[in-house]
Amino acid sequence: MQGAHKGSASALDATGLRIGIVQARFNQGITDALVNACRQELLALGAAADHIELVQVAGALEIPLALQALADTGRFDALVALGCVIRGETYHFELVCNESAAGVTRVGLDHHIPIANAILTTENLSQAVSRQDDKGRDAAQVAVEMARLLRSLETA
User: Fold this and answer.
1) For the chain, N or C: smaller number of CB within 10 Å?
2) Cα–Cα distances in Å, from 156 out to 35, 114, 148?
3) How far apart are CA 100 and CA 107, in angstroms?
4) What pLDDT was estimated at residue 91?
5) Residues with Cβ < 8 Å from 100, sequence gap 6 or more?
6) Do 14 and 47 touch, CB atoms closer than 8 A?
7) 103 in a structural domain
8) Within a domain: residue 2?
9) Which of 60, 30, 124 is nearest to 86 (CA)?
10) Set 5, 51, 92, 111: catalytic member
11) CA 122, CA 145: separation in Å to the nearest integer?
């Protein structure tokens, strides 16, 4: 297909990119692991340590507001949302999952900034632990790939 933008190794080059990460402290053992995996992957992809900014919030519902504040600065090429919501016995799980995801999406669309959403939504702690490293790395890759894609579309 002529003019199609295809993924490539250069799409995962974080050199020169500024990435903001918002971490929820709720289920902090899991979210700390997400942050560590994300940060290590960003560094491996060429991001400078001083171009990665981390802010923490109480829980998943607070993530969108912090993302919005970071987006408002205009300093970032992409953002990452990291959190963990584990199903409980009440409807609160669905509310937190749905509202946080909707908020993350809205910030990205309203500010025209890519946001990698790695707010884990799991049935139990075991599922969260088994996903924490892969999802942290995936979030870093998505943030970089989308930042590069938007740059290429803006200059096309």
Assistant:
1) N
2) 33, 18, 12
3) 11
4) 66
5) 60, 61, 63, 64, 81, 83, 85, 119
6) yes
7) yes
8) no
9) 124
10) 92
11) 26
Report the greatest alpha carbon distance in the chain.
Answer: 51
Read off the CATH number of the domain in which 65 is found: 3.40.50.960
Q: Strands 52-57, 19-24: parallel, antiparallel or unpaired by DSSP?
A: parallel
Give catalytic status of residue 51 as yes or no: no
DSSP string, 84-136: EEE--SSTHHHHHHHHHHHHHHHHHHHHT--EEEEEEEESSHHHHHHHHHHHH
Structural domain contains residue 107: yes
Report how many domains make up the chain.
1
Residues ≥6 apart with Cβ < 8 Å to 75: 18, 20
Q: Which residues of the chain have pLDDT under 70?
A: 1-9, 89, 91, 156
Residue 99 within a domain:
yes
Which residue reads 């930042």 in tokens? 147
Task: Report the C-alpha gap between 47 and 144 in whole angstroms.
Answer: 9
What is the full DSSP assignment across 39-101? HHHHHHTT--GGGEEEEEESSGGGHHHHHHHHHHHT--SEEEEEEEEE--SSTHHHHHHHHHH
Q: Give the structural domain span for 79.
A: 25-143
pLDDT reported for residue 11: 83
pLDDT at res. 128: 95
